[in-house]
Amino acid sequence: MSTQTDVLVIGCGIAGATAALRLAQAGYQVTLITRSYAPEETNTRYAQGGIVARGDEDTPELLVEDVLRAGAGLSYPPAVSTLAEEGPDLVYRILVEDAGVPFDCGTAGLSKTREGGHSVSRILHVGDATGKAIQIALLQRLTALPNVTLLAGHTAVDLITSSHHSHSPMAIYQPITCHGAYILDRAGNAIHRILARATILATGGVGRIYRHTTNPEGARGDGLAMAYRAGARVINAEYIQFHPTTLAITGTDNFLISEAVRGEGARLFTPDGRHFMEQYAPKWGDLAPRDIVARAIHHEMLEHGYPHVLLNLAEAMPAARIPERFPTIYETCRAAGLDITRDPIPVVPAAHYFCGGIHVDGWGRSTIEGLYSIGEVSCTGLHGANRLASTSLLEGLVWGDRAARDIISRRELILARMDDIPPWQSVSEGKAADPVLLYNDTRNIQNVMWLYVGLARSTRRLARALRDLNHLWGAIDEFYRTTRLNDALIGLRNMAQTAWIVTNAAWHNRQSCGTHYREDAAEHEFAGLDDTEGPLPNALTEF
Predict the structure, then answer these.
(1) Looking at domain 435-541, which of 3.90.226.10, 3.30.420.40, 1.20.58.100, 1.10.10.10 is its CATH number?
(2) Which residues contact 300 (CB under 8 A, 6 or more apart)?
(3) Domain extents for the chain?
């Protein structure tokens, strides 16, 4: 089966859903796909803390200052200004008024809290499940529109571009243009062509390339890898934000303990009861930007052999108020045998947010004609080397809106002829994917990234990571080309590519900045290694 649509949106978190909503309301036919069978299963769903709005006595200029400070000097000022000027109004217009997101209210109206790095209280929230509430509201609004086709259980395999897939003899004389994507229908076990005038990547983050992450299963770098293979420019890939506080109880996932917990007064202590954040950030203390808090915890754990540190909310908030303000965290901890109304929470850092991504302009346009990228998979330059808390949802909202507006304004975007795009070869060819190989290769990538390309990096670790990843790529590429295609195999290939992109970027940036911390940044000799011993042989760029 092959179909045509005005706009193909890959991913339905806040960025993709916002773009789809704006386009559909303008009369465009929109096809929205998600690899999960449950459309609400997105990165957005797991955002706990909230979304930046406008606080009392707040100004766009004050928000700009906070974002630039958190970004460690690398944020792109025009992108920051765009967010500060347009974002808060869009929150009220799209999320509050149009989608009806039930944000928490107090006696004076919508309730606002403060998080790390913010100078005022400006964060709207829905308990500790803000992303889930936004996701559900946007999907309900979208599914009520007749010109939106939502395809769950569909995995994007590769982008369709003029240079790689077109039969048209004129394609070689044109700039690289995206005409849609090859999509795997997981239930039907078939790959379809979906052609579109414009394609929007909104596939979320890359956290699953690490052993410890707050991200859901689908955050494996699919969009980043597809765009890279198609020739799109990727920037700032070394800047991976590690959330400082995730639940550290044996047998449980790294469940995120929202920064809003510290915003409400919770403090960090070592297992022997020592408060340590003033030592690392005298001005901000426990509300320092995430990279500083995460590295402080990491250093304390390494220096003293702690398995975790402790986050004490019980001493900052009345016991009866905790389940009301943080119901999801309370219930999750209780299910793990922990009563956070009395006991401190054991926490460790984990990979959380991708500050780099597909390079886009102020309207979400990538370097490939007809291809837009929005949300975490993109890099607007907003976050620089480190993201300010609760700006991720706002970025998705702002650039989802801006990408849609840009597409609506353009008349030159063309729809490729179906005859010019070859169908994919049969998905039923080849042997079935061996689950043992899939599992082992996935864990190998995650371990390499966690140990060598994690919170603290060095020349030797990165060189080892590049060698290991290049070796893995040879095996995974052969596996991919000789095995019957399925979602897990597509994901494994994208994870391998994304891991290499991140590691190669980290290798070439020898200066510590924000979330990219090089232990050997001050060294002049770099342990006797030069560039020829790092990323070469570069197997991943040869296909």
Answers:
(1) 1.20.58.100
(2) 270, 276, 306, 309
(3) 2-238+355-420, 242-351, 435-541
- Give CA–CA dist 491/296, Å, rounded: 33
Long-range contacts of 249-252 (CB under 8 A, 24+ apart): 249/336, 249/337, 249/338, 249/346, 251/336, 252/336
Residue pLDDT tens, the chain, 543 long: 689 999 999 999 999 999 999 999 999 999 999 999 999 999 999 888 899 998 888 999 999 999 999 898 899 999 999 999 999 999 999 999 999 999 999 878 899 988 878 999 999 999 888 999 999 999 999 999 999 999 999 999 999 998 765 555 545 546 899 999 999 999 988 999 999 999 999 999 999 999 889 999 999 999 999 999 999 999 999 999 999 999 999 877 888 898 889 989 999 999 999 999 999 999 989 988 777 898 899 889 989 999 999 999 999 999 999 999 999 899 999 999 999 999 999 999 999 999 999 999 999 999 999 999 999 999 999 999 989 989 999 999 999 999 999 999 998 888 888 888 888 876 666 788 999 999 999 999 999 999 899 998 999 999 999 999 999 999 999 899 889 999 999 999 999 999 999 999 999 999 999 899 998 875 433 333 333 333 333 333 322
What's the CATH code, domain 242-351? 3.90.700.10
Could you give the residue numbers annotated as active site? 290
Residue 339 CB contacts under 8 Å (≥ 6 apart), including other chains: 333
Residue 28, both tokens: 């465009």
Q: Which distant-in-sequence residues (6+ apart) come within 8 Å of 146 by Cβ?
A: none
Find, among 348, 136, 140, 395, the residue nearest to 253 by Cα.
348
